[in-house]
Amino acid sequence: MSQKTDLAGLSARAIREGIAGKRFSAGDVVEATYAHIDVHEPGIHAFNELTPDLARAAAAHIDAKVAAGEELPPLAGVPAALKDNMNLVGTHTTCSSRILSDFKSPYDCTAVRRLLDAGALPIGKCNMDEFAFGSSTENSAFGVTHNPWDLSRVPGGSSGGSAAAVAARMVTVSLGSDTGGSIRQPGALTGTVAMKPTYGRVSRYGIVAFASSLDQIGPFSRSVEDAALVLNAISGHDDTDATSVREPVPDFTATLGDGVKGLRVGLVRDMLDLEGCAAEVREATEMSVRTLESLGAQVGEIDLPMSQHGLAAYYIIGPAEASSNLARFDGIRYGHRVSDPSDVVDLYMRSRAEGFGPETIRRIMLGTYALSAGYYDAYYGTAQKTRTLITREFDAAFEQFDVLVTPTSPTVAFKIGEKAEDPLSMYLSDVFTIPLNLAGLPGVSIPCAKSESTGLPIGVQIIGKHFDEATMLRVAAALEGALDLDMRPPAA
Amino acid sequence: MSISEADVRHVAMLARLALSDEQITRLQGELNSILGNIEKMQELDLEGVEPTSHSIPLRNATRPDVVRPGLSRDLALLNAPQAENGAFVIPRIVGAEEGA
């Protein structure tokens, strides 16, 4: 690199323009990225695997386009990281599980393929809670990820590695997956922009399934514009995922600057009053809504009492679907296998018990129980009906409002180990994010304040109507612009 | 509804998980605690409410009935713990005396 540009801090747009203007090359970006990773990764452990060969090959492809005078794709030369539950040929896909520690990706995840086709450079695969079960990234078989804001704290989870990598400027953008908050909650805890698109907006092909009716892939970034650019790249129908929809995909960057004048913004009052929601989080959420009001939004309040049952419904539906999806790990077609099975049932039972970690076993057991004979109606049936009521309540709220606003996480980042022995208190981390997955709605978390006592980031969640990510992102961009926060953590 | 130790052992068998006595005891406590917190949901009036299995209205997704390439055998076997002659190897299921 010929000049001292801080490439690690640049936006996606600035990287593309810098490469197109020949101020630096995509190759320079790759080398600067890995140099930055060398400094920060030992303390953070965001990655399970780094992929410099793939990144350099992708960069050479971009630099050849520059040399040939060709138009560059929208994410040309943008360093990107992938949660380690997304397949990419040439990488392992471990889900941070012992059972998949040697698994080689046999094909590409559609969202990953689309991100790379848009010019992004694959830098590495990120640590996560095993199979995405958790809210702290402590449930990884390969060690915990540390929060760049305070290395003694968790980055949230389950996409904690993807969040920490972006927060620490080791990459510009990353992909995570969100089943109950696994993108948005770590986004809040690391001060990044973190979005779950509408269910069906992004193909789930090639991601290892947790709960098929709830999972959705989305981006982490350091700006709303970069989130919109990634959403542009990964959205749209895919023949290999029958639940991906044929809705038109707008250019999500086109309306980011339109402001909020006249938009109806609903503050979800009863969520703020929930026991366990920290006062500083409540105040930051209220301040965010007042800021939107000062920008011309019409602000009101609403209660969503049915959403308070979301956590209960989720902890039936999520584990039920997970126990079914994880039945495929049988020690025969892939994954860990015991060396001395006495018969095929013994092979299944011991391979699975040895390969899965404690939280994964807990969820499989919970889900299997909820689906078992005699309990199905009481648990799974009840949860699915509750899900209907939660969706209806949102539908009614969206007759009054264009977007809804809640906190993202009830607290700032907690200490490593603080909740590790208490599954229920860990589950509460996702109380504000889970209802969106149940209803299939899009949500984005953006940083809105720093804690006065700890300096840690606080996130606010903006919820959009189905397939109206554009309005949601427009509100997020207006708030981001008005708050103008410096969200560079100490370890970056 | 309280879960007994026998229930936990039964569920572990259904889930094909070989758990130790210590794991069974621990899970019994944890599952009871988690399900105890979920029971509030069962107080809701759900009479006549349709269950939701999918949050977005979707009709059957079909595509033209045209053959297209799938995963090759080599790729399908790429991660097999044990493979031989283009097939997955598993322990004998049919008894030796019955012939293979």
Task: Provide structural commentary.
The complex is a heterodimer of chains A (492) and B (100). With 492 residues, chain A is an alpha/beta fold. Chain A has 2 domains: 7-312 and 380-483, Amidase signature (AS) enzymes (Alpha-Beta Complex); 313-379, no CATH class. Chain A contains 16 helices and 11 strands. Chain A has an 11-stranded mixed beta sheet, sandwiched between helices. In chain A, helix 2 runs antiparallel to helix 3 and helix 10 crosses helix 13 (376-400). The longest helix of chain A is centred in the C-terminal third of the chain and has 25 residues, at 376-400. Chain A is globular, with a radius of gyration of 21 Å. The relative contact order of chain A is 0.14. By secondary structure, chain B is mainly alpha-helical. Chain B has a domain at 5-42: Histone, subunit A, CATH 1.10.20. Chain B contains 3 helices and 2 strands, in the order αααββ. A two-stranded antiparallel ribbon of chain B has the order 1-2. In chain B, a hairpin with a 2-residue loop joins strand 1 and strand 2. In chain B, helix 1 (5-14) crosses helix 2 (21-38). The longest helix of chain B has 18 residues, at 21-38.
Strand order of the largest sheet of chain A: 1-3-2-4-6-5-10-11-9-7-8
Radius of gyration of chain A: 21 Å
Strand content of the residues of chain B, in percent? under 5%
* C-alpha geometry of chain A: globular
Overall pLDDT metric of chain A: 96
What is the level 1 CATH name of the largest domain in chain A?
A: Alpha Beta
Spans of chain A of 5+ residues with little confidence (pLDDT < 50)? none
CATH topology of the domain at 5-42 in chain B: Histone, subunit A
CATH superfamily name of the largest domain in chain A? Amidase signature (AS) domain
Helix content of chain B: 25-40%
Overall geometry of chain B: flat
Number of helical runs of chain B?
Answer: 3
**Strand content bin of chain A:** 5-15%
* Strand/helix succession of chain B: HHHEE
